Amino acid sequence: MSANSEAVLQRLQTSVKDNNLGDQIHVAPVGCMRLCGLGPLVQVDPAGALYQKVTPDHADSIVAGVNGGQVQAQPADPQNPFFAMQASVVLENSGKIEPERIESYIAAGGYQALHHALLELEPAEVIDLITRSGLRGRGGAGYPTGLKWATVAKQPSERKYVVCNADEGDPGAFMNRSVLESDPHRVLEGMAIAGYAIGANQGYIYCRGEYPLAIERLQKAIKQAGRLGLLGTGVFSSPFDFRIDIRIGAGAFVCGEETALMASIMGQRGSPTPRPPYPAERGLWGMPTLLNNVETFANVPTIVRRGAEWFARIGTPKSTGTKVFCLTGNVVNTGLVEVALGTPLRQIVEDIGGGAPGGKKIKAVQTGGPSGGCIPADLLDTPADYESLGKIGSIMGSGGMIVMDETADMVDVARFFMEFCMDESCGKCIPCRAGTVQMHRLLVRILEGSAGPEELARLEALCDMVRHTSLCGLGQTAPNPTVSTLRYFRPEYESRLRGGSQAQRMGLPVVTPVPNPAAGAGRNPSGGPGAAGDGHRPATEVSPAREGGSAP
């Protein structure tokens, strides 16, 4: 929408109508086609011609090109490494089907997995299938999905719930939003399969209020599925009933944490509570509750349809399947990237992403949003899987990946993420409420050149204290960007103690990653606190280096 795609769509439809080509050409509005930085994109099938940065003025020539006319729009290469090196599971329908037409999803094999599960498998067999696939939660923590489902299924309760966490909130991340906007029925089908497996008849999707298009398409999808008997009473004429309702979040980042999210669904203040008990034992209204994020549920229909062994062959033995990343920042190709888990970061950033623009060198890659770490360029051969990223001080998170080039000021990067966590802290526990404030103040003093060596030591001590004593994932992971930049870019901190920033000495601008203003900042601590962005603007803000070196 932000790139004027709707105007392009309307002009294409008008051109087809004006030229009486309605029986020959169908203009299909589809979801995200991944290469967000060069949008709007238009693809002509079955030839497969792809055009980028299309404007309404190009529409007439694209329509004429179907019959051999000359197209004025800028062509894109479908064999570009950005497209060719991706592996599609979650995004297999994105950019291909019409998200507002259930018939389009069904024609692509939609709801076959639900039909198979209900009529041919026992609930325990479905759980076994998910367990054998090796699927892990894609919200960030990477907890084994099959184990979580089995735990909820074993609980002796007449009522159980399925909850989809769509409260994406990490700066620079928009994976879940794109899936919901591009393929909403896929998530509904995954939730229904989960409900059958654990014995639940009610599901909730907790979606950020800043995602109006996703909410609108989910509402339409739920109604369409209900009319066809794919949701509601007697799904596929079976004894299984399953209803899905939407709950809209008001924008608190902490509501990505599972206990805070459930409190918000129940109409309470969205703040975390100690665990145990875990939601699998005592969740919504005191009942066993299964909570997974959008991408996790989106994997389920494909696993049921194609088999656990097929899925387990993708990725690594401990991190199976694919992962969707939002590639943003100082990189040529910004957008959605889905690759097999275990793919080296260098391949994602340099081959698929095209490297840093303007011939600059990549300095660092930040994964996992505010909960993650900054990985230096010399570690870009690290595989992108849960274990490998953890070993170098970062996390998978929900899938945000911000690239920083050689102009980045890493102390200011740490300050930015700490400011975000400080602002988004719910304030319930003192370590997070007060600790993030104190760490932010120390980072600002270091940037200003007014801190001494003892304050750097105090910053490190605070990081350790907040990490180990905070109540929820927001506080426990808030120090990660600071800890990782201290680990890998310590000279930039120490140079500030002597006065004057590295950027000022080199005459470079200060570059700070920021959340995309078109979509807002988001919230999701528990799986790496969540995320947002429209994918059409670089997720960076550049300000001239000035006294103190901090960026606004």
Task: Describe this protein's structure.
By secondary structure, this protein is an alpha/beta fold. Among the domains are: 5-78, 3-Layer(aba) Sandwich (Glutaredoxin), CATH 3.40.30; 102-312, NADH-ubiquinone oxidoreductase 51kDa subunit (Rossmann fold), CATH 3.40.50.11540. Helix content is 39%, strand content 13%. It has helices spanning 5-18, 59-65, 81-84, 102-107, 112-120, 123-133, 145-153, 175-182, 184-198, 212-227, 258-265, 294-306, 308-312, 345-352, 386-391, 410-424, 430-448, 453-469, 473-477, 480-488, 490-497, 502-506, and strands at 42-44, 49-52, 74-76, 161-166, 202-208, 243-249, 289-293, 322-329, 335-340, 362-367, 373-376, 400-405, 510-513, 540-543. A five-stranded mixed beta sheet has the order 9-8-12-10-11. A four-stranded parallel beta sheet has the order 6-5-4-7, sandwiched between helices. Strands 1-2-3 form a three-stranded antiparallel beta sheet, with no helix packed on it. Strand 10 (362-367) and strand 11 form a beta hairpin. Helix 5 runs parallel beside helix 9. The radius of gyration is 24 Å and the shape is globular.
SSE topology sketch:
Layout: H1 5-18, E1 42-44, E2 49-52, H2 59-65, E3 74-76, H3 81-84, H4 102-107, H5 112-120, H6 123-133, H7 145-153, E4 161-166, H8 175-182, H9 184-198, E5 202-208, H10 212-227, E6 243-249, H11 258-265, E7 289-293, H12 294-306, H13 308-312, E8 322-329, E9 335-340, H14 345-352, E10 362-367, E11 373-376, H15 386-391, E12 400-405, H16 410-424, H17 430-448, H18 453-469, H19 473-477, H20 480-488, H21 490-497, H22 502-506, E13 510-513, E14 540-543
Parallel strand pairs: 4-5, 4-7, 5-6, 8-12
Antiparallel strand pairs: 1-2, 2-3, 8-9, 10-11, 10-12, 13-14
Helix pairs in contact: 1-2, 5-9, 5-12, 6-7, 6-9, 8-9, 8-10, 9-12, 16-17, 16-20, 17-18, 20-21
